[in-house]
Amino acid sequence: MPTDADPSTIVKALHLVFLSTFWGMQIWVTFISSFVMGSNLPQHTFGFIQSCLFPYYFHIGSACAFINLTIFAICHPSELLNEEETMQITVFFICVSVAALNAQWFGQVTSDIMAEMHLIEQSHGLGENVGLFLNKSLVRLRELDSTYKKLTHQLKIYHGFSSLCNLCCIACNGLSLYYMAAHLSAL
User: Fold this and answer.
1) pLDDT averaged over the chain?
2) pLDDT at residue 91, rounded to an integer
3) CA–CA separation, 68 vs 2, rounded Å?
4) Measuring CA to CA, which residue among 3, 102, 2, 114 is closest to residue 57?
5) Element (H, E) at 3
6) Which of 63, 99, 117, 158 has the highest local Cβ count within 10 Å?
7) Can you tell me the distance from the alpha carbon of 15 to that of 68, in angstroms, rounded to the nearest whole number?
8) CA distances from 13 to 68, 71, 131 (A)
9) How far apart, in whole angstroms, are the C-alpha atoms of residue 168 and residue 126?
10) Cα dihedral 118, 124, 130, 134 sign
């Protein structure tokens, strides 16, 4: 039988820990470490580090999103959901779905394409430039090598979708944090 009892402090703390863990990772990876590493490391080193770290980032984020959805769903039976809680559970569901899609598909395909591109770049003595801006030699390589041009196009698509998934999860977690803050009885 559904009940409207408040969850224990431990359950609330777990919910907050998983939400804040995912949020903190998102802010750090998206807005800080990527720009710092991209600005200071050779392009291939930066790409290699990202290809090693991102699967962990995506899977840990997916797990955090799933645990948050589960905790919220258990603490808010569907028979008792008000409009605001229905919106919150929808936000959690969207976050889980998009994070899983990124972890299982877009992120992995992006890394695979990037690895193929790095091999082609290395065969032409490229990829050791430092910085976030496109090297003119890579532009020339794209014009001369049809395989590289195709991979560049694919990378733009998959990286774009992966980035959109990431931004969607950031928005979902921002809304969830706002929802939690609005329901704090005291600080």
Assistant:
1) 92
2) 97
3) 19
4) 102
5) none
6) 99
7) 6
8) 11, 11, 41
9) 34
10) negative
Q: Which two tokens stand for residue 159?
A: 């990286």
Tokens of 176: 């969830």
3-class SS at 130? strand
- The DSSP secondary structure of 8-69, one letter per residue, reads PHHHHHHHHHHHHHHHHHHHIIIIIIHHHHHHHSBHHHHHHHHHHHHHHHHHHHHHHHHHHH
Type of residue found at 9: T
Chain mean position to CA 165: 6
Are the CB atoms for 60 and 25 separated by under 8 Å? yes
Residue type, position 31, single letter? F
Lowest mean pLDDT among 5-14, 15-24, 28-37, 155-164: 5-14
- Print burial letters for 32-56: b (CB count within 10 Å at least 16), e (below 16): ebbeebbeebebbebbbebbeebee
